[in-house]
Amino acid sequence: MDSLIENSRISCLFNESKSNLARVFEEAKRLAKEDPRRVIHSFKVGVALTLVSLLYYIRPVYYDGFGVSTMWAVLTVILIMEYSVGATIGKGLNRVVATVLGGSLGLGVHHLAKLLGEKGEPIFIAASVFLLDLLGLGHRRLSTVAVGVAACLCVSMFVCPVWAGEDLRHLVALNIELLASSLEGLSTEYFVENDKEGEDVGKDKKNPFKGYQSVLNSKSTQEALANFARWEPGHGQIQFLHPWKHYLKIGNLTCQCACRIQSLHLVLNSGNQPPLEMDTTSRLVLYKLSSESGKALSDLASSIRSMTTPSFDVTVLADKLKSIVFDAMLVPDTLKLATATSLLIEIVTCVERITGSVGELAQKASFEPHKALVDTDPTEAAEVVVLTMD
Fold first, then answer.
1. Which is more confident, 39 or 119?
2. Distance of CA 119 to CAs 31, 125, 128, 130, Å?
3. Which of 70, 278, 303, 376 could form a disulfide with 66 if both were Cys (CB 3.0 to 4.6 A apart)?
């Protein structure tokens, strides 16, 4: 009877362990699908901890090795191992500098205690709470911290590296793409005459002009990535002393443009005011103003993502947008239409600033020339992006 109870208990424990293990695998599978880099980062942390743990076996703890100071290498890995290479390098350098400064301070106090003589030295050392064998302790502590930092840097840079600079560049390009889709969505939603069938189709779609909201919330992320990217070495097309601060400048301009788009959306979608009414000419001018700005932003995003120069001439784009703006100034005949037109003109100004800033980035970062500009005439390439008005 007792054996049956024991067997059933063991069977229950086995089934429970099996279900828990299956649940862990399902959770890991879900995380791998959502963001594979999180799983890779976990693997990298495990590799770094394994490397520093080998100190226990290479040089025995209780003999002529690092002693209990080996644990500081493990703690260093836990403290400084970050998601990206730049963040790991930054925290690693801070850790080493702090350890060196702390050791230097201890050596300074030890030297000062010797200068006080035989009577003052024990009192000063006791007051400073310093142990015997100070030089050996500091050497072991600094050595183990250096080993931990070196292990983290090697694993972070050579095992599936995650570069903060690449994330920053793709984030800036994504924000510009979101602004472009917002402008194109606004132009299609409010400046195009839709029949009943088109209106029904539009109701089923998600609003594409809501992308500006994520742009407004990404400023802190851009600043953090730029700070981490400054610590990273050159890799791929990214050269040493890459102009990371210029990405922040473009990010600030995109936030300003997103604020204008948000204001325009609120004006056009205001429930307290009558719907926007305009004739065919006014509708065409505003449609061209928003759609051409969106097309220019899409090309700028592609330029940043591929690290190539824009596929259009900046001066030609500016002249074309100014001609559309001049026609837009003649449009307003109601307060709501005048407000929408004024905001669109401000958006065009922001687009011109973003275009100029991307051009400066292309020069400073030595972007490769766009293939369309190499193979075709510059005036023909400009006509691909900017439409002339009849």
1. 39
2. 64, 11, 15, 16
3. 70
Instruction: Tell me the two tokens of residue 296.
Output: 């220019």
Query: What are 200-231's pLDDT values in tens digits?
Result: 444 444 455 567 888 988 989 999 999 999 98
The per-residue pLDDT for 372 is: 58
**What do you get for the CA distance between the two ends of the chain, in Å?**
97
DSSP state of 309: -
CA atoms 165, 168, 174, 179: torsion sign = negative
Q: Which domains does the chain have, with CATH numbers?
A: 35-158 (no CATH), 164-385 (1.20.58.220)
Tell me how far apart the alpha carbons of residues 200 and 338 are, in angstroms, rounded to a whole number: 29
The whole-angstrom separation of Cα 15 and Cα 361 is 60
Q: What pairs with residue 368 in β-bridges?
A: 308
Q: Are 320 and 355 in contact (CB under 8 A)?
A: no
CA distance 173 to 114: 61
CA 274 – CA 342 distance, rounded (Å): 18
Say how many C-beta atoms besides its own lie within 10 A of residue 17's C-beta.
10
CA distance 27 to 49: 23
Q: What pLDDT, in 10s, does the model give residues 38-83? A: 888 888 998 998 888 877 676 654 445 566 667 888 888 888 898 8
- Which pair of structure tokens corresponds to residue 297? 């932003």
